[in-house]
Each structure stands twice: as C-alpha cells, then as structure tokens.
Amino acid sequence: RLRALVVLPSRDLAAQVFKVFQHYATGSDLEIGLAIGQSDFQQEQQVIMAGACTNGKESISKMRLRHQLYPCNLDLALKVAGKENGPIDTNGAVDVLVATPGRLIDHLDK
Asked: How far apart are the first and last CA of the chain?
C-alpha cells in the first residue's frame, strides 16, 4: 500500500517533513509513517507494517503480524491462538513513509 517514499538526509529534516505530511493528510485516509534513527525500532516496524491501533480494535491479520514482530508478548500470542488461521496481510499500513537512509536500510534488512 506504500504510495510514496520520502528519503531525507537528517532526522531533524525528516521529522519536519513528517509533520507537514501529517498536516496535509488531516481529513483523508492517508497514513503517514516515520522511520528515523534514535527511536524504538520495533515500534517503528509495527506502525509501518501493522499500523497503529487507534480505535481499540484490530483485525486478526494485523494481530498475527504484530505477534510475528513481538513473539515474546504472551497476551498477544494467546489472542492470536484463539482466532482462526488465515493469511497475514503484509502490505504495510502506511501510504507515505518519511525516512532517513540508514533507518530505511535497517528496516529493509529486517
């Protein structure tokens, strides 16, 4: 589902551009993601791949994907075990990803 990839040379510039994209995306269905160094890698990966759970509910597909990203989360594993099996949606959850080159490579390597 990724529609645009914006690669910027510094974390500060990436954070500024991310805020601008969020402002312009207000009122639309576009999801904007940010991948920069010196932040929690696993949390970034979860938001990019599975999205942030904003309404308190998420699909079983997203739950399974989160379980793959966080295999040591017992509560999540028990939720997933109680649901029927099916394909995992790995298309990603963001439409626009703003990233620094190093962090983007980190995410591509994982």
From this structure: 19
**Which residue in the block uniquely carries the two structure tokens 């991310």?**
18
pTM of the model: 0.65
Does pLDDT of 41 surpass 80? yes
pLDDT at 24: 94
Spatial CA neighbour of 42 closest among 12, 65, 74: 65
Q: Are 36 and 8 in contact (CB under 8 A)?
A: no
**Percentage of residues in the chain with pLDDT exceeding 70?**
61
Backbone angles phi, psi at 35, to 5 degrees: -130, 100
29 contact partners, CB below 8 Å, separation of at least 6: 95
Please give the sequence-ordered ranges of beta strands (E in DSSP) within 1-110, or none if there are none: 4-7, 32-35, 96-99
C-alpha 21/C-alpha 26 separation (Å) is 9
